[in-house]
């Protein structure tokens, strides 16, 4: 299958491209730089220059492929409204191209905010609708295209998709520990974070492309909920720092914007995803990755 991948040079995107190529699929990846294009083509994929604001490039990529996997996001935490706007515009553009084609359209989403007081599941509908909501309400927008002949599939990622080279949320929490001299957690630290190794996430995406029906909500979750205090203690051991509670009202001051997320319970289940796809996470756990020291090397 010829697959168009946005965010093809990103953390999850790079692993996904490798997984797709390894399974015999052809890949065209959206990239923003010459260096990213060269790296992508060295793998055997085709590079398409552009970004999320280049809607013509998105149209060309989706129109010329048999499936689309949308993983790119601006992730501009200083201007979330702009990230939301760009995400909604991209999903609208890609969906419009695919109307009536019955081609797969997989898009990145997350497990945050799906449920309160319990782990979220694939049966939880996203509460985020409309352009002013988180991610611009892109998941619900994509699901609206199902009735228009698009095989939309949501890829809900854990708050940490971890592994060697990860520069996401865990790396930011490690950076906060270095900067403050303590490895913090919020409150009692018993709120859980779902986690998945990047290799497992990439394999789930490929299986979702091949097997999931229209309207599927897939959870890239390898561990349902690692207590944030346990995460902080592992970071403390890696850096030789004490693990310390941070008051909720001080979380953003201590961690930066990531403090809002580290204070949330983002536990989640992937039982239904595993049953649907025959997918079993086999990669290292989050604590194993932390204990390996990869997050603490300069």
TrEMBL record:
GO molecular function: aldehyde dehydrogenase (NAD+) activity
CDD domains the UniProt entry points to: SDR_a7 (cd05262)
Pfam families registered for this protein in UniProt: Epimerase
Name of this protein: Nucleoside-diphosphate-sugar epimerase
Alphabetical list of SUPFAM superfamilies matching this protein: NAD(P)-binding Rossmann-fold domains (SSF51735)
GO cellular component entries: cytoplasm
NAD-dependent epimerase/dehydratase domain segment(s): 3-210
Biological source species: Microlunatus antarcticus
């Amino acid at each position: 299958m010829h697959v168009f991948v946005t965010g093809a040079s990103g953390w999850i995107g790079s692993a996904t491209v490798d997984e797709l190529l390894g399974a015999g699929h052809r890949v065209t990846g959206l990239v923003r730089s010459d260096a990213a294009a060269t790296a992508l083509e060295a793998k055997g994929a085709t590079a398409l220059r552009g970004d999320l604001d280049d809607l013509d490039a998105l149209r060309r990529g989706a129109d010329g492929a048999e499936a689309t996997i949308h993983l790119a996001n601006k992730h501009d935490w200083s201007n979330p409204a702009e990230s939301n706007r760009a995400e909604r515009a991209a999903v609208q553009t890609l969906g419009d191209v695919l109307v009536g084609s019955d081609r797969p359209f997989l898009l990145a989403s997350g497990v945050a905010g799906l449920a309160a007081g319990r782990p979220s599941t694939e049966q939880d509908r996203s509460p985020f609708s409309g352009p002013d909501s988180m991610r611009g309400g892109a998941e619900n927008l994509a699901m609206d295209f199902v009735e228009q002949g698009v095989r939309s599939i949501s890829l809900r990622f854990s708050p940490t998709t971890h592994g060697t080279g990860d520069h996401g949320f865990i790396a930011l929490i490690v950076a906060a520990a270095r900067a403050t001299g303590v490895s913090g957690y919020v409150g009692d630290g018993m709120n859980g974070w779902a986690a998945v190794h990047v290799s497992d996430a990439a394999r789930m995406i490929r299986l979702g492309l091949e097997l999931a029906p229209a309207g599927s909500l897939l959870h890239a979750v390898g561990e349902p909920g690692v207590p944030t205090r346990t995460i902080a203690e592992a970071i403390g051991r890696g850096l030789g720092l004490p693990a310390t509670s941070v008051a909720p009202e001080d979380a953003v001051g201590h961690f930066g914007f990531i403090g809002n997320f580290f204070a949330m319970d983002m536990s989640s289940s992937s039982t239904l995803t595993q049953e649907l796809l025959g997918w079993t996470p086999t990669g290292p756990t989050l604590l194993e990755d932390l204990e390996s020291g990869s997050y603490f090397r300069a």
